[in-house]
Fold these 4 entries.
Entry 1:
Amino acid sequence: MSAIEILRKYKKDVVRRWVEAVFATYPLETAGFLRTGSDPFTNPVAHMTREAANILYDAMIGEETEPEAVKAALDRFVRLRAVQKASAGQSMAVFYLMKPILKELALAEILEKGQLESFLEAGDRLDTLVLLAFDKFMDARDTIAESRVKEIRNQYAQLRKWAQKLENGVPADDSGRK
């Protein structure tokens, strides 16, 4: 039995446990909601996390996956992490929660079958996914920062217009007072 066949066998358990580990990184009340909701409309974060976990697991173990599907899964997952208040390291560390789960569930059988090299290659693919995720995370954070700067500029422009009106003797409101 090859390493990929062994890892396929453990997919459901690894993905479930990894998703639980990701949910555990959220505050307690949020984690509880994420664990219980399965409707993609009422609980899109949980749905997207589970969906991304399945695609990323397949990519990590070396299954044939569409590069665009992997990129889309990473993008959705990472954008969600980027809007949270966690650091880049904390946000990306969730990917590495998969490694101890894999070791616990599959490593003994992989060693027994003499497939350690293939197992290590899966870990290398996970590292590559994390690097891609980090780039996407930084792009998302840049977009958020640009949006905040634009918002502040718009607020400043509005305040400046209001101040100029007051300075020129134009009423500040419709009450007719100066």
Entry 2:
Amino acid sequence: MGSRKRNSADKTKEAKKDIAFAKLNNCPTSPRKMRLVADQIRGEDIANALSILKFSPKEASRRLEKLLVSAISNWQSKNEDANIDAAQLFVKEIRVDGGSMLKRIRTAPQGRAHRIRKRSNHVTLVLSSKTIN
């Protein structure tokens, strides 16, 4: 590896030190329903986001709560010596993308059939620290 490439890699690694992410792939919920819950926690600190997800009546909030706990755990494993409260973690980015679609047939009157699309989604959650260590 050349010196310029190594320096660039070191800069990228240093910039990504204070972020952690978690992904949820092929979640069997429609992306539209998941985005309703994801929009509520975007930009919130983790304590507030966890309380929003815990008391939300939507089914998608349980999956996002589990994903947020996973992202927090990933951040802890990356920064063993850092304190979560001192780091002031917040949800920097949350993306909900459409996943694969199961296509089914439902019977309709007069010998016809309607197509049913069972949608799934992919969620990417990125945590970042407000304080720079």
Entry 3:
Amino acid sequence: MISQGLELKQTQRLSPIQMQTIKLIETPFQELEQKIRSEWESNPVLDDEQPQGRDSEDSEEDNEPKDVSIDDIKDDDYIPSYKLRVNNWGKDEREHYDTFSVKESFTQSLMDQLGFQQLSDHQRQVAEFIVGSLDDDGYLRRSCDTLVDDLAFRAGIETDEEEVEAMLKLIQEFEPAGVGARDLRECLLLQINRMGDAPDIETARVILRDHYQEFINKHYQKICSRMGITLDELKAAIKRIIKLNPAPGGQIDDSYNDRAQQVIPDFYLELQDGELVMSMPRFKIPEVRVKKRYSEILEDAQHSNDRETKEAATYVKQRIDSAKWFVEALKQRQQTLEKTMKAIIDFQHDYFMDGDEANLKPMVLKDIAEITGFDISTISRVANSKFIETHFGIFPLKYFFSEGLENKEGETVSTRELKKALRELVDEEDKNKPLTDDELVEAMGKQGYNVARRTIAKYRDQLGIPKARLRKEL
């Protein structure tokens, strides 16, 4: 049985300016000028040339935007925007970056070394594929049999595990030492095997080869007992091991890695005569100025019934509106960022005065949203992609947001302060007898922090602090 009915729904639709503003708020400053330039270059009706004077062919007066209303064009002659849309562009064009580097990439360095080897074309193809499969740290995280399958299906190269293993062994002889390792143990062994035969080096080699599990678990007495060496000999070997490089791929700068980007602050904070002064990088908000021939099209449309003229006028008006929305969104972006940053500075005033983490108050997105009147999602967009340069360093805005816990006095302290106190306890502990989590709970309690054991374990993991057993030193 088919039934019909009416249903009333209330939905919220964002205006073009709101949508533009949301996108621009997420845009860091280093990308903003590129975005402005791209927007202006892609809009054919806009004049980005500055007027040269009254005597120029297109004077300033001629080039000013003509506020011709689209309402002057009859509704029955209006062409819907979807019919004027160009169909051969994607929804979001990928931004193009021209890069130039004089530094040698990690992959290119290995390829250059490969070029000096006497190999057949087939062997070289296999070796090049292996080099391309290494991760940023220089490790090969995939098994040889997987590489055999990939070579066949992705590169059309027939090979076997024996040949892949042989080419991998060859690459492991390249610089930097340790490259091509499949795990940390192999990486360290590749490096120690290139050293001489001094007693401490040989001891280190045997530890890594035969007693690696005991070594990483810091079962030092077991190693001494099984190898028949003294504690001093073990210490000398460990000194050799800890000087090895666990990430050989990081020795050579990979200038082609998109993740290695310079941070350009979106805010600057200075302490001037005891007062905090915040500023933002200056950028030029473009002026909406229409090329003379397009403003003439709008004027002609007011006095013409020609369909083609009115279609052209509709297109021009749409492009002018798009530019005006963009400029207005830029202004709203500036106001939103400025208001949000000032609210954060006021909230964390004591911290920004000297950079002491003990003065960093618990602060969540909701706190700043309530102060500014903005939505929480807006505050999140500002905090997630922006940086501020202060007189004590450069920080991402999300650094200043943290939850809080109460101390014994009932005061709320930030989790960052708790982590700082935890880090100081671990740094000052006796490394021959490091503090367990229970002992850390007790020590934190003496400092006035009521923290549960599971909280200590969570913070310890977040700070990258290993368990007590693994912090033990000789």
Entry 4:
Amino acid sequence: MTTAAEKRSFDELTLGEGVKLEDLLDREALAEILGSAFDLFRMTLRIFSEDGRLLADAGREIELYTYLSGFRATRLAIDQMIGAVKAKLPGPEGRVTYRCATGAEYQIVTLEYDSRSMGRMILGPYLPAEAQGIAEALLALDPNLDRAKANELFLRLPRASEESVSKIAKHLSGMLELVLFAEHRALLTSNMHLASVRESFRDLEDKNQKLQVAYDRLKELDRLKSNFLATVSHELRTPLTSIIGYSEMLVEGLAGELSGEQREFVQTIREKGEQLLALIKGLLDLSKFESGTMSLRKNNAEVAKVVNEVVSTLQPGALKKEVRLEQAVEAGLPRLWADPERLRQVLLNLAENAIKFTPPGGRVTVSAALGSMDAQPPGDVGGMVLLGTKRTAVEFRVSDTGIGIPEAERDKVFDAFYQVDSSSTREQGGTGLGLSIVRRLVEGHDGTVRIESNQPTGTVFVVSIPVRRATIA
């Protein structure tokens, strides 16, 4: 059984029930066709839609009807006749002749296309071959009529046999059918295109809805994942802190003297616990960033003090690995509007990574110098930075002589959990969270972080932090 939607689609691609003659024929083109036919046959022509609306006509004013309309009784007769002609249906043969009160005739012809009645064409009035004068019954309606004038005007109507009028009607119907065919073909092409566009739009809309559902689901899963990470990390940190604390007490001999092997085992427990604690802190920081709960306590920070604390913290590990750790801070640097603890975390992550990936005998340098960066207020779009001014900034550089980062990987290393060497046999450990946290912390300070190559080996991380807080005019 055909549904309403399927029927509408079928009507869109065919001459459906809703398509009318006026939808297919251009009014101006139709008027030109009828005008040419009138010039050729000198007969008044009119075309009506299926619901009786006049679409086009051609011919002169009929002087006889104008004269008869000047008298009340004959005016009523003419009006009734015109209404009767308009209402006359051609019948099953598609053609009918109607004789009006004056004795003149009209021929009403059905306009068909694709086995459907689309409208009617009316030819006339015209005089049949046998007509000799105006009908006496009409003249008798008003004694004031000038019989001679009425008869003279009647005889001015074009004279034609019914056969001739039928040929004219057939000729015009054939012309209109050709025009309808051409317009119908154009309409079909247009409707097929529109149907294709609508179908594509429906498919796209359906896909968008599915994508939105998938997006909402992924967003919810991401929220649940962040909550899970935060909860698990928090729950793990408490017992882990106790494990590290008790292992430190054992190493210090508070529970009795340990043998060499026992001390080594406990030391390993403490080191691995501290590594795990660092991982948990990273997960907590990441979950705070993703949930938007990470807060920065900005204040005036001493650059030299932060760099010195970072180098002092990492110096023992660097010496143990036989890597030379150096610092170079430009004199007279202004204070930074930053969170000192988070800034220290940024440099610690970068310098610790540099030491990790630098072989024995290599060198890692943490430096700070005055520089500048593009002023781009939050929400600014890409091209507008060309019109911006420069902001004074402190440029931190962490350079090493290690294995380096391939150019193709430099944009990816800041993604969470991403590692250049993700194989199970990689030499260096880690979770891939450090650089992701670095980038988020730097952006939280309105700063930027990038990677420069250090040919022939090594890597240089460059962090730019504006000296003063961002102001928007």
